[in-house]
Specification:
This protein is 39% helix and 24% strand. It has 399 residues and is α/β, with parallel strands linked by helices. The protein folds into three domains: 2-43 and 95-164 and 262-340, 3-Layer(bba) Sandwich (FAD/NAD(P)-binding domain), CATH 3.50.50; 69-89 and 169-259, D-Amino Acid Oxidase, subunit A, domain 2 (D-Amino Acid Oxidase, Chain A, domain 2, 2-Layer Sandwich); 346-398, no CATH class. Strands 1, 2, 8, 9, 10, 11, 17 and 18 form an eight-stranded mixed beta sheet that branches. Strands 6-5-13-14-15-12-16 form a seven-stranded mixed beta sheet, with helices on both faces. A hairpin with a 6-residue loop joins strand 5 (69-73) and strand 6 (80-84). The longest helix has 26 residues, at 315-340.
């Protein structure tokens, strides 16, 4: 089989790349080892801003619900920041429905979809790339996009693999609950909860209400000796005791996921590009990856169209992809990696939540940044200025 581009992995990154490539008349094969629809452990929240860049998400009915606010709790549940808005703060999706919807959009755009096909080898030649599936199927193409997750086979076989230390772990479960019960606990505004550094982990616990589901999870960006399964069980009981979730929710069988916590050193090579989790393109502060996945897929598609037009699929030309995503959202990743190092510092956590909780203007700015609706590098000086103002105000008040 021969295609212009083979996209390995049909998550948000791969499906997005396949869609935009196909719309340009590129012959695309979208390949995934799973049968769709399939589920994916995920918090399910995506920034509202992404809906402006990918309007078809709403048009195709892939959004399950919208959250208009949230409650952010400090590590010792001593302070909290509450924010309620008249416009949505984040959109919530069910990954089983969302991912399958994106696949169908790619197919409707002209991509060929091959599911349940696991490939095990990739060879790069001067004039093509050849991938081989476990059943012996050989597929040739001009370029391969690796969008096959944190354990990306494309990344490994092309020498761009992740450092095995650069990932965290999350446990997630979605509980079907009537919309009436969710209204009772989280109101029609679907107010979510985040417990930062819950029980001292370098991460957080969360509760995300959807239309008829409750997404509960706990994750750490730095692996520790903590037994996350035990901690998840304790978190469920903690949420019940604090009347955040219904008393009749049982832990059940939780699902685990690895989360990259920083980009790979290079997201390109001769005839190869890495998108989404395969390239480590995840928000280091929240672990949210759908936004960067779809953005990187679109950027990859644009660069590949140009590469095929001029007949240059070398690493030298494809480096344009990395330069572009770094300009788009790379500055935010770099800045948030600094914050990530502070996760274990309880005193900093407490001070920040305390400051933010006392100032509505600052809380709105911070929450917008955390949820991905504002580029952090664009507002860092505004946040710093507001913090300085509060500090000076407190000094004057004491005197």
């Amino acid at each position: 089989m021969k295609y212009d581009v083979v996209v390995v992995g049909a998550g948000p990154a791969g499906s997005t790349a396949a869609k935009f490539l196909s719309e340009k008349g590129i012959k695309v094969l979208l390949l995934d080892k799973c049968k769709f629809p399939r589920d994916k452990p995920c918090g399910g929240g995506i920034p509202i801003g992404i809906l402006k860049d990918f309007k078809y998400i709403e048009e195709k009915g892939l959004i399950e619900s919208y959250s208009y606010g949230g409650c952010f709790h400090s590590s010792l549940v001593k302070y909290k920041v509450e924010l309620l808005k008249n416009i949505p703060l984040i959109a919530m999706v069910l990954r089983k429905k969302f991912d399958y919807g994106l696949v169908k959009i790619a197919i409707d755009s002209g991509a060929t979809f091959m599911e349940g096909k696991t490939f095990e080898d990739i060879k790069i030649f001067n004039n093509k790339v050849r991938i081989k599936a476990k059943d012996g199927t050989a597929i040739d193409s001009e370029i391969v996009i690796g969008a096959d997750g944190v354990w990306s086979t494309v990344a490994k076989r092309s020498g761009l693999s992740q450092n095995l230390k650069n990932f965290g772990i999350a446990l997630v479960q979605e509980y079907p609950i009537s919309s009436e019960i969710i209204d009772q606990y989280f109101t029609e505004k679907r107010i979510g909860h985040i417990h930062m550094q819950f029980q001292g982990i370098a991460g957080y616990g969360w509760v995300g209400p959807l239309k008829k589901h409750l997404n509960i999870g706990i994750g750490e960006f730095e692996r520790s000796r903590t037994n996350l399964k035990d901690l998840f069980k304790y978190y469920i009981e903690f949420l019940k005791e604090n009347k955040i979730i219904p008393e009749n929710i049982k832990m059940g069988r939780v699902k685990g996921a690895a989360i990259p916590n920083r980009p790979v050193d290079k997201t390109y090579a001769d005839r190869i590009l890495l998108c989404g989790d395969a390239g480590g393109l995840v928000n280091p502060f929240s672990g949210e990856g759908i936004d960067y996945a779809m953005s990187s897929g679109k950027i990859a598609a644009n660069v590949i169209v140009e590469a095929l037009e001029i007949g240059d699929t070398s690493a030298n030309f494809l480096s344009k992809y990395e330069k572009t995503w770094k300009k788009d959202f790379g500055k935010d990743i770099k800045l948030m990696l600094r914050f990530q190092k502070k996760w274990r510092n309880h005193s900093i956590n407490l001070k920040m939540i305390k400051l933010v909780s006392r100032d509505k203007k600052l809380s709105e700015i911070v929450v917008e940044a955390i949820t991905g609706n504002r580029r952090i590098h664009e507002i860092k000086f505004k946040v710093a200025g507001r913090l300085l103002f509060l500090y000076i105000r407190d000094l004057l008040h004491k005197t």
